[in-house]
Amino acid sequence: MLRAYGPDCDGSLIETAGSIPDGATWIDLEEPTREEEQIVEKCLGLDVPTQDELAEIEPSSRLYEKNNAIYMTMGTLYGVEDGEPASTPIGFVLAGNRLVTVRYGTPKPIRTFSAHARLDPDLVRDAPTALIRLLDAIIERLADELEASGAEIERISAQVFRRDARAGPSQRRIPAQRLEALLLRIGRAQGLLARIRETAVSAGRLIGFLAATDRMRSDEGDRERVHSLGADVSSLIDHSAFLAQNLTFLLDASLGLISIEQNAAIKVFSVAAVVFLPPTLVAGVYGMNFEHMPELKWLAGYPFAIGIMLVAAILPYWWFKRRGWL
Question: Does the global pTM surpass 0.70?
Answer without folding.
Answer: yes
